[in-house]
């Protein structure tokens, strides 16, 4: 049996193995910068991870110890910058010893969502704490979904500690590996960037673009051309936010996305599921679509000058927009996402069409559907590489999702467990297939 002291060594061994993986380095860092990337000596890195692990087991007034830590010399950060567009460097008048007790004392001041503890490697003394690095909270928008951009984390090792024995190690913004519940995991690629997910959201994108073109034709002044994938991007961000809110609620949930043409059938008696709480077919059920259309129209209108330049606008212009109407619409669309997430607190599935039309909640998937003995575990975003696994050992939500996707090949089910793990399930290449959102211990990842 492994003891707690072995986990940091195993995590470091895993990190060194990933460092030798050229495909991984190519994904997280441009080739031109890879030559300057160096891991600390193995013994030093083990000391850092072990100290973080020991600090995670301490308590701060009955609260778990949470902090972020970056291994990077203080002089590499600009002294004049700060949030929301930069990092605010604050150097202690003298360095502090790097041990679990010092981390325990600093953690309350280094708010997890806003600040990192900065350390450097002294050739004689090993790791030392040089001060604090204020990042602001915009980095969380990449996790929870949202349009605000954050300054990229520099290509240095960043350690996240979020609870007893819960550690994630990143290179900049990219997760290398995580330790959670004694298990070391490597996060999967982002499923939301897959071709099949974009295709699944195509009905919403196509419909909103058709409506957008009609509005553009009626406009009195020129509108900018929009990126054809802009609508899908908004849809992806909203789904991210829904998942994140459910994960942080600690009660779990099940989201079921169905083809838009099945809406009427699902609202009546059918062999697939019973929807306990149904919403009437009024405009309010389609609020997400209407908000997406308003965002598209507003963005095209306020960037009308780009029409003369022949330039296309899209996600970059959206996230950088200072327009008040865009800000209000952005807030509105994520209020809808939070509302949908709250519905998952009731037992059963929240049922939505792929055009983001909210049909209802409390959905009970029929027990008469055939059970699923074997499922495919996808090892890449497109499901090109899979391994067959038994469906035993999963919860009721998972088994229900497997049965539904086996019967309805166009359905997508997202299962969020109470332990914050996430599975995305669909019928793929002749079998029920799931993609793991690997738990990293970082809230919302």
Automatic annotation (TrEMBL):
Entry's InterPro entries? Answer: DACNV, DNA_integrity_DisA_N_sf, DNA_integrity_scan_DisA_N
List each copy of the DAC domain by range. Answer: 259-439
Q: Which Pfam families match?
A: DACNV (PF21751)
Protein's recorded name: DNA integrity scanning protein DisA nucleotide-binding domain protein
What is the native source organism of this protein? Answer: Geomonas propionica
